[in-house]
Amino acid sequence: MFKKASKLFKALSLIIRQPALLNHVLNDHAVWQKYVGKNHNMEQGLPVVELESLFPGFEAHVPVLAFLDGSSLPTDMALLVKLAENIDDCSYFEIGTWRGESVTNVAAVAEECYTLNLEDDAMRHMGMPEAYIELTGFFSNHKKNITQLRGNSFDYDFAALNKKFDLIFIDGDHHYESVKNDTEKVFNHLVHENSIVVWHDYARNPETIRYDVLAGILDGLPKHLQPKLYHVGNTLSAICINKKYAAHMLSSPVKPEHYFSVEIRQQAVSKGY
After folding, report:
1. How far, in Å, are 30, 116, 128 from residue 122 at the CA level?
2. pLDDT value, residue 27
3. How far is CA 258 from CA 22, 50, 261, in A?
4. Higher-scoring residue by pLDDT: 13, 145
5. Model pLDDT, residue 52
6. 261, 61 contact by CB (below 8 A)
7. Phi, psi values for residue 259, rounded to 5°
């Protein structure tokens, strides 16, 4: 008992001297997994729906992939493109622009796209280098059907848009509080009854769930919509969709039941893209 108390005292002393250590405790995988299990009975994560189930005969063309830090998997991009393709005159909204790859890919098949990112000064205040800031919207800034919005999703006036969207991609900050906030804002202001919402980085890789992100999704989502949540197989994404699909629980390591054929063509970036 004394040893346990001594260890606890040392741990608390370290946290008092270095408060940042508390983040490591709060973000611990096992802690969040237990939280999700206790509060939402989802300790195993979301049921997995395969791309083939969503799109029989799945095949997609993704025109823009940088394959750089912060990029999505090709399958995540393909998911967004296929969803938009299957919605007539699709209206798309996303949180988190970065280089603008995802919104540019969707814009190729959607009627209109909106993307929200932090203002330049806000990023400077966070200590982000100018080179990073200058690349915001690199691929998307000059596309006619893309509207670039600036602001922080914690205080941005989503209601002022006075608009509902068919497809929404939440890809901003991926910590619990931000995911919860963005989820709440989207479902309070931007969805209609058939809107499809996708969250990026629900998983670290297609076989490893980020339980802090899942907690943010579940705590921000209206309770009655939780049965409509899935993890899309072979992607990092979670999806809320108003349709029932055959699904299974994730079991890692995954025995492949299918594979993907990929053709890659490199193209030079013209000035201003």
Report:
1. 33, 13, 9
2. 61
3. 41, 10, 10
4. 145
5. 97
6. no
7. -145, 175
Distance CA 1, CA 136 (A): 54
| Burial state string for 42-81 with b = 16 or more CB within 10 A and e = fewer than 16 | beebbbbbbbeebbeebebebebebeeeebbbbbbbbbbb
Quote the CA–CA distance of 103 and 147 in Å, as a whole number. Answer: 10
Give the C-alpha separation, 265 to 273, whole Å.
17
Question: Cβ neighbours of residue 77 under 8 Å, at least 6 residues apart?
Answer: 62, 65, 101, 102, 105
The most confident of 17-21, 111-115, 268-272, by mean pLDDT: 111-115
Residue pair 238/230 in contact by the 8 Å Cβ criterion = yes
Distances (CA, A) of 241 to 141, 159, 233: 29, 22, 15
Q: Measuring CA to CA, which residue among 57, 52, 48, 109 is closest to residue 80?
A: 109
Which candidate, 62, 67, 28, places its Cα nearest to that of 176? Answer: 28
Q: What is the pLDDT of residues 100-154, one digit of tens each?
A: 999 999 999 999 999 999 999 999 999 999 999 999 999 999 999 999 999 999 9
DSSP class of 253: S
Measured in degrees and rounded to the nearest 5, phi and psi for residue 221 equal: -90, 140
